Here is the input.
Amino acid sequence: MKLPFVCCPCRHSLRIPTLRNVHISRQYTRPSFAPKPTLNLKHIRQNPGLYEQNCIDRNYAPYAKNGWRILELHDRLVAQQREAVELRQRNNVLSKELKGGASGKSTLVDEAKELKGELAEYERQERVVQEEMEQLALELPNLSSLQTPTGEKPKVVGHINGDTPPSNHSGKSHVDIGRELDLLDFEASATTSGWGWYFLKNEAALLEQALVQYALTLAMRRGWQVMTPPSLVYSHIASACGFMPRDQSGETQIYAIGHQEGKEQKASLVLAGTAEIPFAGSQANKTLSESDLPLKIIGPSRCYRAEAGARGVDTKGLYRVHEFTKVEMFAWTAPPFSSTSGFENDEEVQQTPSEQVFDEMVALQTEILTSLGLHARILEMPTTDLGASATRKIDIEAFFPSRTSIDNGYGEVTSASVCTDYQARRLNTKVRFERGEVKSTFVHTVNGTAMAVPRVLAAILENGWSEEEGVVRVPGVLRKWMPGEAATIGPRKRTGVD
Amino acid sequence: MKQPFVCSSCRLSLAKALKDLGVNGSVNNKRAYTRPTFATKPTLNLKHIRQNPGLYEQNANDRNYAPLAKNGWRILDLHEKLVAQQRAAVELRQRNNALAKELKKPEEARVGLRSILLDEAKLLKGRLAKYEAEEKSAQEEMERLALELPNLSSVHTPSGSEPQILRYLNGDSPPSGKGSKSHVDIGKELDLLDFEASATTSGWGWYFLKNEAALLEQALIQYALSVAMKRGWKVMTPPSLVYSHIASACGFMPRDQNGETQIYNIATNETSAAAGTGLVLTGTAEIPFAGSQANKTINEVDLPLKVIGPSRCYRAEAGARGVDTKGLYRVHEFTKVEMFAWTAPPPTSEGGLDVHDDVRSESEIVFDEMVAIQEEILTSLGLHARVLEMPSTDLGASASRKIDIEAFFPSRTGIDNGYGEVTSASTCTDYQARRLNTKLKFERGEVKAGFVETVNGTALAVPRILAAVLENGWDERRGGVVVPRCLRKYMPEGLEYIGKG
Here is the structure.
């Protein structure tokens, strides 16, 4: 069949990727003022098989050979550099002779010129090879921790509020509860914005405020500092944190801001799907003192996720939405003492600073969910679930009475990840210390959800629903933020007077 | 020269661009977004415009919308042409019917040859089709011209560009002895604000709030909600992303009357853009609130419907950088608590503009209540401010009347005596309701349904209030900021003072 003619502008806009041996570039273009990544190419060259296996374990098969290719390129580079050295030596000899006023000057000048040209070409090639190696290294996901199960199955490591789901529930979905009690409006949001948005009304809107306040209060008690970040960030910052325009399934997860006509724009902006991104970016190109670490912050922000390809069963409700409020924890820690790759921990008995903070995050998440009265299970996530930046991830899944047919009703409400130096190397965040010979190196970063409002709200509505009374019981810890410290949310009176 | 090949999709988009060149060949500065098929269909008061073209012309000039001043006259023109055409079409239809009757008759009774009659019928059909197409095109043009026109101005609104000072809050003149330390410096000293970090992550116009400043933001939101809730306002939290046609229907065009871009839009593919289903970031919760009642009919007994809610707001602020190169005074992203209300229109109004007596309309009552809430909040926060009746050039597209309140910023005494806008309240009569098709059902003599009126106002816009609280609360002797009393219960341990360390 004859292919339809596609004119040049259309061809350009269609951007048909030529899938052969050329990798599909998933990175954003990095503007000149962006932090320059410093990757551990040496470790990759010395362990290409490790990185290959890791890619396969993580479902990043297209990049499995990157380590080998880096090794190859490096060998080629070393050989080229040797050749260039010879040329340079000859060049030096020539310039000495030219200075000495030797005879046959013109032939010498010609040879010098030719050499100069050849050397310039070598330098250019060297640059190209360096960039190629950096690009290949940038595509590789982080290595996985020892605690991380290989494959697709998470491991249950604990429960909250009982070992099994509660049995005394009606299974009513939060969508129906929201309609009955005038708490949620999905129709209005369908009109204004389409699928995946919602209006919170009355007590639900107040519960959102209460949940944010509660999460901040608990974290502050444990010494976390509050910080409220922007929701719009440069795309290269998102990319450096491991958030690519397309994830490993080829889905678009990030909303990009359209080009502003007539406005001079330094670089493209995107909507952050988590405060992790602006938090991490806030220390880009910075060097922290060892005494500042661990630096632990927590803050609320509005998060945006395209959730492409994820609609499936969740056609309505708060379970999967495009926009929500989330309180996020982020920490910068010193790397473990002896590591150069961050992974030679076998001989260490103590926890690394990042592991300590990671455990603290999970403890805080556990405390919050426990006090909200929600039954949940704690999972050590497997390699296929880790994404690009995490070396280790623990998710907590709360029980949703209306979803017992999907995964026994369990749905993710929090996540915590250790990213070792993946983000720090890409954002150039360092720590300065005195440890033998090493004067400064990259920090480790850790992040975790303190409170993602929609799902926790949905869980509270469904678990707190009493079918006989037709009310939702408000968790005790939240009552001080509700009007009149009400213990329940009941039906609204339907008159014009209130 | 050989024409370059243009493939079919390019040809389509080119055709669309050509279509935008108006009827008389002048370039149409198309300011409205493409309206998708599922969007609300606006119902404009064309009759009122036709009957008062001079009023709309004057209004457009008063509001700095000069390019649109002749729209009313053009609508009148088009209408008259349309009426004449419709008359001509009526005659053609009559002739067409007569022909059809003739053709039905048996041959002997017929007047004229069959073939000639058929030819004439074909000709008439063609002409009628042409009339119908022209009629449709004229109506679309009239609607487009009417959509462009800004709302008419209230009798309270001064003409021109000078606001009128109505009253002051917390004293008749700015407080003395406040020093002039800017919130930026206070923020640096007390580790409350970080503009460097935000310059790295996002560029100019963003910021990180730290420690007590982040907590003050939460406290301000809680406080503002409580003030309105006490007066019976319902809390509602809206989305920040909406369809572009919803923003447009509320009066927020991709370019304002200075040609500046104020709205961030989400990058989308061509199909989406052509279908008009692209999304934009809202600069105010007014937009999703108004849109929440699009295509709805509300019962009169449910009005006035008054909601208040916090949302994250985004403004491109193009062309506005000027003096405000740093700080919270002009930013691209912020939290705002917004009030919105739907009210019943006054009884006799057709254009919603008939002035009568001292009886306030429902929207005027709600408008006054909004301003009262704003004044209560600012008074309790201890900020000196002035209340302004805004002039016609400041009203934008949708507002019929606007009151702004400007608080005093000790660090800005060189600009406008230190006063800077912190709240705004607007009454939009039926401008938004007609574009969003929000109606009410009632029984008033013969009229069974009509368009609601909408009113909106800022309860609290965090950055500027925060900046004002920091600057006005700064205690030079102690080197810290005194927390306003009304906020202390919302701060951890009832914090009264923000000091160093």
User: Anything to note?
Assistant: Residues 238 and 277 of chain A are 6 Å apart (CA to CA).
